[in-house]
Each structure stands twice: as structure tokens, then as C-alpha cells.
Structure of (apollo) hypothetical protein:
Amino acid sequence: MAFFIDKRTAEAAKKRVVEMAVIEINKESARQESRSTITSTAPTTSTETGISKDSSKPYNFIDIWADIDIQDVHILESPTAIAIAEVRRFINDKMLPRNASPNDWWRKHFFLYPNLSKVFKQHFCVPCERIFSKSGELISDRRTGLSSEKVKKLMFLHTNKK
């Protein structure tokens, strides 16, 4: 937030990041639902008692926890509330040193910011092959007069366009 000159722009960027995190949370919830649907439709039996989950007989202790573990962890909070809390935690965290690698930082902090790390991975990591091939197209025989600074700026614009 320190690098935004205009407070409205900073708030708009923050809002957009929250929206992207909500999308990631909803995707994960849908994946968990589909997994639990597959798990719940398959008849299972307890290895200790041999009682089927579909049976009218009472569950044993292990079966109860298995059902609870399958449930979505976000039942009590909305995806938006979870995303806002995660973005707020991220903003209040220490700033990344300039010489640090953002990719390494996100790998180390994945468990603190699981949804934001997915957003970062999708939107801010540009595969080097694409950059390399685009630079090959940019620096051609027809464009030999481009300065290295101009090439850097053009590559930055190309890799960050939306």
C-alpha cells in the first residue's frame, strides 16, 4: 500500500485482490464439494466394526471424525470475509526486501496466505519461455535501433498487460 500515491487507487487495487482471492476460495470450495460428493456416494465400511456408513447402526468414533474432516472449513465465514482477512494480514505483514525473490517468499508463506499465493501464482508469474520468445520477436533486424532501456520498458509492458 506504501507505493500507491492515490488512496482511491490503493483501495481499488486492494478490492480487486480481494475479489481474486474470493474466486480462488470459491474454486477450492467447489473442488472440495466434488471430492466429498464422490466420497459420500461410495459405500464405505469401517475397518474396525465392519459397519457400513449407509447402515442404520450407530457410527463408530473413527467414522464421526471422517465425516467432519470432509466438511468445508469455511462454513462459519463467507469467502469474502476470509479473503478480506487474508488481504488485511498480508498488508500488515513486513515488506519484502528489495533483493528477495517474490517466488521464494510466496512459496515459504503459502500456508499463511493460501488464496493470495494462488492469485500471485496465476497473475504475477510469467513463464520465462514466453518472455524469451517475445523478446526475440521484439529485437529483430527491423528494430535494431531500439535501446536496451526501450526494450526493457516494452517487455515490461508486454508481460504486465491485461
